[in-house]
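Our preliminary data section would be incomplete without showing what the modeling component actually yields. Below, a chain of 248 amino acids is followed by its predicted structure, encoded as C-alpha cells that our downstream tools consume directly.
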Amino acid sequence: MRNIKAVVQYDGSRYFGFQAQLDPEHLPTVQEKLEDAIGGLLKEPTRVYSAGRTDRGVHALGQVVHFYTESLIPVDKLANAVNQHLPKDIYILSTTEVPLQFHSRKCALGKHYQYRVWNSDDHCVFGNQYFYHYPGQLDDALMQKACKLLEGTHNYQGFAAAGSTVKTFVRTVYYMNMRRDGQWLTFDVYGNGFLYNMVRIMVGTVLDIGLHRKSIDVIPEVLATQNRHLAGRTAPASGLYLKSVFYP
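Predicted structure:
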C-alpha cells in the first residue's frame, strides 16, 4: 500500500464544492472528478481525502489531497497520467509519495487563502466568476488597519456562517493583508484553520469599512460579542482561492 500526496489546482465555477455529495440530482464535485480519474487510471476503487472542503464556486491554486493505492506506477509519472483523465478545469500540479500516516487535513498546520476584488465603477463582463466586483471609492489605509485587527487568536463565531457545528470557534489568524494593483485588490489571509465562510465574511466586513458603511470599531465589537449581525456581508465565493496548505 502506498500513500500519495497530490497538489491540485481547480476552477470551482461549475462545481458544487470539493466534497462529493449524496443527492438525487448527482451534482458535480471536484472530489468525484478526482476519484473517477484516479480510480479509472489505476483500475481500483479510490477515495480522495482533502486538506479542506472548499464551497461551491470557490477555486484552488494549491489544494492538497491524498489517496492510497496498490499501484506501482512511478510517482513522478502519476500526475501527468491522471491529468489525461481529468476535465480541463482540474489539474494535478504534483504527486509525491508520503508516509502512510500522512493525512492531508489532520497533518496540516495552516492554510493560505486569497480573495480577489475588482474595485471599479466600470462593469467587467469577463471572468466575473473569478473575482468580486465591488464598486465605490475605498479607503485603502482604513482597510489595512481593519485587516490587522482581525489577526490574532480569537473566538471568530461572529465571522462565521450561522449553523456551524464545530467544537470550538477559536482560531488563529497569523496574517491578513490587502494590496492594491490599480483597480485590483488582493486579500491574503493565513491561519491555522477557518470556520465556514470565515474568510468571505472578514473580507466583506473590511470592504464595508473601506466604503465607510461600517465603522472600524465593529471588528473588536464582533470579536467580543460573537454577534454575526454586526459584521459585514458575506463576499461571494467567486473571489476566493485556496492558495496553499502548510505542513511540518
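The chain has two domains: 2-98, 110-246. The mean pLDDT is 95. Preliminary results of this kind motivate Aim 1 of the renewal.
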